Structures
1.
Amino acid sequence: MIRYYFLVVVLGLSHFGYARQATESKLFQLPANSQKVSGTTKVNPLVKPLKLVTVLDPKGSSIDRELEVWNALMGSMDRDSIGYIFLVQDTEDIEPFKQYWFTERNMDYPFYYDTDKTVIKANGLSEGSPGQTLLLDDKNAIILSGSSPINTDPFNRYRSELYHRTLEMGMDKAVRGVIVEPTERGIKWFYSNEPVYVTEQGEVIPKNQADAGIRSKKWVPGTSPLSDTIRLVNRHP
């Protein structure tokens, strides 16, 4: 009887600790709609059930690689379920960056111009560490935090968490490609639906179109910056 009582107390305390942690999750203060720079797109990432927030430094040396990875990442996920909030740190002139974002990098998605770093400061983010990325739930509570997904470990963590979260929310096939997860025995990986096919221009295309292009020798499967994408390289004569 004493052992039973002790077990009940331990389980009760464990549950209390978990509930406390869940209710005390830090809420993220979203940017205002007035900070959004949309271009021609009408997407509103702030209303999506799940959100990935990242801080971008427009003058950083890794900005090209970051946008390449983000473009492929967004192409492998359902944009109706997941929103992407790009916080762009204040620059001297926004117009060159708008040209870079929408035209040079072909980003068909808005970004949030964080003038004077108001959002970064309000959420206690490090002003000197661009690339910080946060995953938010439907209440804007922070689920995961880490560095830019151009690094393998955080990339896999975000993908795995989004895969399981969307499944729990009844969103089948919201995340495509390879899911990589750590286990007690090492690393396990599996395909969620199919690989993601990306052209040299960064366009994500469906598998049947990719297969047809490979069979017709229009494309040759090549390497990619992401583990779950197949880059389609133009076959030159």
Note: Confidence is low (pLDDT under 50) at residues 1-24.
2.
Amino acid sequence: MVTLAQLESQIQKLQRRADAMREQKSVEVIAKIRSMMDEYGLTTADLAKAGSGSGNKRGRKPGTKTSASSKNGAAKTTLPAKYRDPESGATWSGHARPPAWIKDAPDRSVYLIDGASNKKRALKKGRAAVKKTARRNARSAAA
């Protein structure tokens, strides 16, 4: 059976080996970076300048406002609210992540805004009518 002292000794040996490998790897990486800097004529000042924000960064530039259109140019639409918190008055459209006030609710229909349940039913009826028409057209085309 291995003792705690033996395990700690092994850990220390492995840690020293890992440090040595890390040191060797960093020496190799630094040499590679220096050779690439020489190849492209770069200096440490160029690196500092690139890190100061003058290079291409991802995301919005400071001071710009978000646009109201998506990537393909189509306008973004906001969905109407379906649920309302009676205490705070906060609303939720029913899409994306649910807010904390409705997240754990066993029955979300309690929070439905008047008419939202009727809209759901109308939407379902509309979809059923479209499917029914499509089936009827397919049958008539096959005949």
Note: The CA atoms of residues 43 and 58 lie 24 Å apart.
